Amino acid sequence: MTLYRRSLVRALVVAAALSVAACAENPELLLDRVELAATPRANDDTPVAVDLVMVHDQPLVDQVLALSAVDWFKQRDQLRRDHPEGLTVFSWEVVPNQVLEDEVLNEKAAWAGIVFTSYRTPGAHRLRIGPGTATDPIRLRLEETSAVIVP
Hints:
The protein is of the alpha+beta class. It has a single domain (28-150), classed as Immunoglobulin-like, CATH 2.60.40. Helices cover 28% and strands 31% of the residues. It has helices at 3-23, 58-65, 69-82, and strands spanning 33-38, 48-55, 87-94, 99-104, 112-117, 126-129, 138-142, 147-150. Strands 4-1-7-8 form a four-stranded mixed β-sheet, with no helix packed on it. A four-stranded antiparallel β-sheet has the order 3-2-5-6. A hairpin with an 8-residue loop joins strand 5 (112-117) and strand 6.
């Protein structure tokens, strides 16, 4: 390989690395609206607390993702006090067969969106919304034993 080609290859590798790093500098998740719909037998016919957590501080993403819904609801108030600019929390209580359409968020860009739901059944009851998986609006269906994001 000639000196020119080696230099060109190195320059391209450096440019590619810089462009990948640049992509990770700014949060990309933008959500304006959410729709929630509970099935008739959601959570054994009891209300479901739903928190949509928008994480604006990148180091907090892994910390919040490590929590189950039970842990989130226990620690939520303290996490909000510890990170007032790092988290925005939207909360709803949805009863079986209820539909909440077009809930407006007007939220700034975030690194991740994480949905926690308070089901009676065991499980993490946590869903992650990332830039590649988000639709607008996010449609969340609360089923009998868990929640799902629907297209």
